[in-house]
Amino acid sequence: MRATVAGAQSHAPSVEPVMSRLDYEQNALHHSCLLVLLRGVGPSRARILQRAFEKVRRVNNIKVTDSSGVVRTIYFRFIHEHPVEHNDWGDFQTHRRLLGLITIGKFENQTELNELCRHHESLKVRYGGTLYESRAIFFGPDAASSESLAIQNKAGITTVDNAQADGNTDLVVLKETQHPLAATRLQDEFTTPSNFKSQAFFYREQDNCIDLETRVSDFLNALFWVLESRRLERSRERAEKVSLLLAPFEKRDFVGLDMESRNNRKRCVGRVMKNLADLSLQAGLLDDALSLYHNANETLRSVGDSLWVGASEEGLCAASAVILYPQMREIETLHRNASLQETGTSPLRNTPEKWRASDATKKINTPANCADAITSNSSSCSSVSSLLTNNSSASGTPTTSSSSSTSTISATPFGHQRNGELPGNILKPEEITNYYRKAIINYSKYRHAATIETEAALKATRICIEQNRPLDVAMFLQNILYINLSLSEAERVKRFEIMTELYQQIGYQRKAAFFQRLAALKHVQQGSQAPDWTQSYRLMLGSFTGYLLSLDPLEVLENAAGWPALQIDLAQNLITAARRLGQSALATRHMTFLLQTQWDNMTATEQSEMAVQLQNLSAQCEGSPVPLVLDNGTVIPPANLTDLPYCMEMVVKDLPAHLRPQRIKIAKADSGPFLFTPIHFNSVDRRDKKKDKNKIAFLWVQNDLSEVCVRLRNPLPFELAVTDMRLLSNGVVFESLPQTVILQPHVPTNVALHGTPIETGQLDLQGYSTHTLGVKSNCRLKHMRGRHLPPNYLVDVIPALPRISVKTSLPQTATFSNMNKSDIVVTSASLTLYNGESSSCTITIQNESNTLPLEHLEVNINSNVEQELQKKMFRIDEQALQAQLPVAPQGTLEFVVDIYAEADFVCPMPPGSLNTSADYGPSSMPHYASISTSGHASLPVGISSPQHRRQDLQHVTARSTIAAAQHSLAALNLQPGGADGSSSLRPQQLTQHIEAQLRLKYSGGEALVAGYCRQCAVSLNLELIPSAQITSWDVLPAEIPSQFYLVLDISNLTAQEMSLNYTENKNILIEAKESCRVPIPVDRCSLEQVCAARAAEVAENLERELCFRTQLLSFSDALSKLCSTHIAERVKINWLLTGTDIQGVASLRGIVLSHGMVDLTTVSPLEWSISFQDTLVQPHSEIVATVGQRAQLSINLTNQSLQPLKNLVLTVKFYQDYLNGMENYNLETRVAISGPNRITIPVLEKQAQTQHNCSVIFFTPGRFKTSIECVTKPQTQQKNSIPGSGSGATNPTSQLETMSTSSFDEQQAHTWKFIPPIEVTVVEQ
């Protein structure tokens, strides 16, 4: 039965003989050690004496050769404190008896030396009952300071520190160099008091103490021989005269008992035998100790001495462990704290992976016992029979024999030991555990042996740890809890700490954490007079591992293991401890840790409460994302509130469109004939780009403000203020701007974060920092769980680019451009012009950069019109612009954009009129401006829609002309007239809107070298108002063959009177919304131009044929385009709105000509030479003939073209013009022609001439006109052989060759007239 053990005093006899303090550091191997007290005395100068303590502790074993020549290894255990009452248990277990004393002190004068000696002597008196030997090690002053100290001593000045010998562990290593002035011996300068009987070693303060280890070794050697002598004395005692050895609490139990009874005698012999086994174990005689333990165990068991049976069983376990697990000494030495304090280090501190079995353990479990064994021969003595013999019988019981000489206590070994083998009576590893269990059971029968029982359980635990038997470890540790000990709160805490450490060694982290937290709560339990919050905090912090927590919140979130309720409770206790310690920073850090790691494990109410609590804690000390270092060196990693607020999305924004960097395009020259290769030389670069999945496609610019948009949500039920929100970056230097936002509960909010990259290179955007609830947090994307966010964003930063501002001289518009790249528009300009009017816009560019010049500037114009038309509407002097570069910082540049309101002034022709040949009858001759009622080709009777017109014109020859006139079709729609052409043309006054962008690419500085620029644009909105419109047109012969008359019907579509200048010296006024007809003389198109157009048409057809194109061009297309261009270049109609300065030019671009118009526009290939009455006819000359007389008419034709003319038909007709639009060709009764008036000329070669003569007789007087014309008729066979005309097509190449050599009259019908018509006046005779 266990009972409560009374408390023991350390300096006086105890009321009840129990040990006052548990030795939690004991292990089984300490049974073989001699106990030495190593104590610092005198003033507290432990740091200076650290080197001495290290040297002494280093000598923890010695080699001794006994009288039989056997070398023994004797081990010593140095302790810093030893209660006196523990010596009373020296008979029960000899390793508890203090045998040696070493004191170390530092003095500066004789007084201090005397004090050190007094302390040493007081310790000798205190432990005098068991002390064998003692030594004192004194460190005095250096030789340099000894003279001054002597002077002070003579003056009566002494400095004695009132310090206690507290064994301070905070020591430093002494210097290795010896003071050069230490020439005289220190003991010659200072003397010890007369009552100081111990041996002292004197060293100077800076002495290396070279011989100190040797002296300590000699001291330990002396201790051994004293112990050996005591062992020998014990072994020579007679069995019948041995006294009864008692445990301290047994003295009252044996009072009045018969000690001569058989059982008591056996009890005495068994206890003495057990005591001798302890001495043998300490003396290095392991074999003898094993035999004696076995014998003592059997003897004591036979008499029911349970306490001493347990001691003998524990001794057996210790002796066996010394042999089987010698490495436990080495581990203890390696892990021993080099200080006076013994901090409870255990042989194995880390994890079960370090468990290992020694070679001896392996040998005891295997049949082949062929390893090195620790052997020890029994020593020789002068007694009649030796104490231990290897040849005695293995009876296993102590023998008490009567002889005439002497009877001694002997040990009969349980087995024989050969060289290289383990002792036969050694316990196997599994037996050690069983024996320890038996010993603990025996101890548990005595309430005064509770301390012994607890220490035995701890020793068994450490053996089981060495044997890798965690279940047995847990069993022994659990038994400790049931031992009824009267412990102080500090001792209870110590017990829990030791259990924590042992549980940790076997990997029972959860158990270890439980006891560690229990110890922490014991430190600050209610009713404690001096709660130790520091120790409580330390222990709770150390229990994190057992609860599957880590100080690093990132690791906790990654593992997501453990028991959330326990973890939350532990964190709250830790916060309370930190607050009680006054460590507001730690309390804030732990609360932040709690919110970060356990946010998902808390209810909404708990989240809100914890957030409020954090806000209150941070009011005392603000939280920051930096590690906190405790006094013991423990680092508390930073904790960040990554979910407060909750980040839903993070988007890196590109720069504004007009500030985005672009690559300067450089025209690449072909490096060879191979324009395509399947080899991808940049495939490696593409693979690298695929790896950078977080790489942003766009670029940022150095020193330019950049933006990142973050979408946040407040999970708390109250408003959350987030201040000093900044971007977190790595790589290049980045200046982040703070942002403050107040988030409403559960409402997503977009927050724009800005910053400026200061350097060029790659910028790594890792997240953002916040300051909320009083805590600064670094919220990195890679730590945000449950969101599809990349770990970071990589943005390339290019060198700085200049920035410009653009202004125009025109007013701005209300809306910007609707064209592509409208986002790069920075300003706008609007302008209203009449069609044909010119204006200009001045663009002013200012370089807003403070350091960068504007070195590169490109100006391009993009609009919603065709490129050719755009070139006519906008013009910029590039040379003048480039001459102003570079522009210095804060400098300006100006250039002018010339704008011309290009429009189609020509009203589209009706398709029906294009197929109508011009017919100039005699009635049309008198007045050129009048139009005959027979309907000329220039007078359209109806206008179709543009679409129909485009389709109809595909069947005629004017393809290119129609294509050029598409804008006029879209801009002007005329109401169709009647079928008879009687209705007038009324064009709609449509306003045309043109959008254009003046795009500016600019760069400078290092960015220009790197090939980067920026692009911005100016939006130009042009409103083109109709001015003049050509509604109809015709081509009439002029008075001279080299010219023709272009007759135009021009309408004034403006609301003002218009002055029209159509020739150099002719003007006409047109009222608003009215029209007029004007004839304009124009030079005809020369034959050289016609031939060049034909050659170009033939070459293009040949190219089309070689490229396998089916549709070939017709010569009429090229000739019609040539004539249209000829008219547009030579006819410019200037208009002016009267009363204003608004003026412009109306062009005839896109005019469409019929075949008859084309013949009149070009110079005739025939040269006419006509004679009447053998007189050459001159233009407008007067010819007189007589009635009834024959008149000779001679016509001479010359081919002036470069090709022969074929199938010509020459016709001569006489008619009368009544000058009222009526022409009479029925003159059979008035005129007679002698000879043919119509002849056919098959071929007229180039430069060839032909002549036709005829006679004419007038029957009546009057005025007659002669119409002489030559008409070509194309052959049907030639028409069918045109490429692509049908199944009759032959080889296209030969046909093209034929076309190039044939005359154009074979392809189309032409009419050439002699103009003006010959006018003959017939008179009477």
TrEMBL record:
Bias (Low complexity): 392-413
Domain Trs120/TRAPPC9 N-terminal: 74-327
Domain Trs120/TRAPPC9 TPR region: 472-619
Segments forming domain Trs120/TRAPPC9 first Ig-like: 654-768
Disordered as annotated region, ranges: 392-425, 1275-1302
Subcellular location: Golgi apparatus
UniProt domain Trs120/TRAPPC9 fourth Ig-like: residue ranges: 1167-1322
The encoding gene: LOC117564033
GO cellular component, one term: trans-Golgi network
Residues in Trs120/TRAPPC9 third Ig-like domain copies: 1042-1160
Pfam families: Ig_TRAPPC9-Trs120_1st (PF26254), Ig_TRAPPC9-Trs120_3rd (PF26282), Ig_TRAPPC9-Trs120_4th (PF26283), TPR_TRAPPC9-Trs120 (PF26251), TRAPPC9-Trs120 (PF08626)
Keyword Zinc (UniProt): no
Protein's name in the database: Protein brunelleschi
Family in the record: Belongs to the NIBP family.
Highest taxon in the source lineage: Eukaryota
Keyword field: Golgi apparatus
